[in-house]
Write a structure and sequence with these properties.
single chain, about 375 residues, alpha/beta, seven-stranded parallel β-sheet, 11 strands
Length: about 375
């Protein structure tokens, strides 16, 4: 089958894990670590990266396969010999894509490239020239203006979108309508991890309700040492992120909690953790006879590889939608793979919706 051509906005840790993973699965026939082996006939190795966009001088101008290992990326290197893609990382448009404190942090932050910033026309032309079919948005949390800029480019270029970060596009009716009108598929918003803080928190919240325990209070505290956590030291950039993560949990509770009784969000930046993310969860509730109980959990994961399986499935769902001529938000895939989809469903229901979507795709591919 012809490869799925993918463009990446933000060649950071998440892009690094994804590109390494494609090379890994292309070099062997394993399905270990995948949520779905094939979707619409496409495997995890059937992705071709055709364009990268970044604003860091250490990445701009390099082949994507080289740029993913450039500082300040610090995720696990599990496939060091990624073959050259033949696709360069071009200079993007900064806007609010880089927090002010990041530009003065030396090797721990961003060194903005000296090259002239891209224009909307330039990005659209690059997308068309590359043949990109799916655009991944890996911009940092808080990049509201930058995300909307690239969404305009995707709409003009006719490219499907996987919105991996918490600027609300697929879940905002005015944006989703524009994708639907142009018959351009989008999966979003804010990608879940394969086994991450949000999905674990949701499952435990559902479990409490299913077993008749009323959740009274809950928190989720996260620490990490990658640029995502460093970026989020600017608390003004956290509005949509906290909303996304909090609503993902609230949707699974039998009774919605008051704001003062739920706290979901990043806690602090710990440089030596690098791309390792620590999550501390606590749920307090009352069971039989109104007797109190609580549960505490500590989760340790490599943050960026943890999102790659969901992104890979979302890419392939977008490709299937393109082949079918579908546009707008893909409801089932968005609900299953993202924290803030247009419609929230419990995870079992969302999983079933994805299975049905994949089954339809398999039948169509025969």
């Amino acid at each position: 089958m012809k490869p799925i051509k993918v463009a990446v906005i933000g060649v950071g840790n998440c892009a690094s894990s994804l590109v390494q993973g494609v090379a890994h699965y292309r070099s062997n026939n394993s399905s270990q670590g995948l949520i779905h082996d094939r979707i619409g006939g496409y495997g995890a190795g059937d992705v071709e990266f055709v364009l990268g966009v970044d604003v860091d001088a250490r990445k701009v101008g390099k082949d994507i396969a080289e740029a993913i290992f450039a500082a300040p990326n610090n995720t696990t290197v599990f496939f060091p010999q990624v073959p050259a893609t033949g696709a360069k990382v071009m200079m993007g448009k900064v806007l609010d894509g880089v927090a002010e404190h990041m530009t003065t942090a030396g090797e721990k932050g961003f060194i903005v490239a000296d090259a002239p910033e891209a224009t909307r026309e330039g990005i659209v032309a690059a997308l068309k020239q590359s043949g990109a079919e799916v655009l991944l948005n890996f911009l940092p949390v808080g990049s509201e203006d930058a995300t909307e800029f690239y969404m305009e480019c995707a709409l003009e270029a006719g490219v499907a979108v996987v919105n991996c970060m918490p600027v609300f596009i697929a879940s905002r009716p005015e944006w989703e309508r524009r994708f639907a009108e142009k018959r351009i598929p989008i999966v979003g918003d804010d990608i879940k991890a394969q086994i991450g803080a949000t999905i674990v928190h949701r499952v435990l919240s559902s479990l409490f309700g299913a077993r008749g325990v009323q959740v009274e209070k809950t928190y989720q505290l996260n620490t990490g040492g990658n640029t995502d956590f460093m970026n989020m030291l600017d608390r003004q950039r956290l509005g949509s992120k906290k909303t996304s993560k909090t609503e993902a949990v609230q949707a699974m509770l039998a009774t919605r909690l008051e704001d003062e009784n739920i706290h979901v969000g990043p806690s602090d930046y710990v440089p030596w953790q690098k791309d390792n993310k620590l999550c501390f969860l606590r749920l307090e509730g009352n069971q039989w006879g109104n007797v109190p109980m609580n549960l505490e959990l500590r989760l340790s994961v490599e943050d960026s590889p943890n999102s790659a399986a969901c992104v890979m499935d979302a890419i392939r769902c977008c490709k299937v939608a393109l082949e079918r001529g579908e546009g707008g938000a893909l409801i089932g895939p968005s609900a299953y793979f993202c924290k803030h989809p247009p419609q929230q469903f419990n995870d079992d229901t969302a999983a079933q919706m994805v299975e049905e979507y994949i089954t339809e795709a398999a039948i169509a591919a025969e």
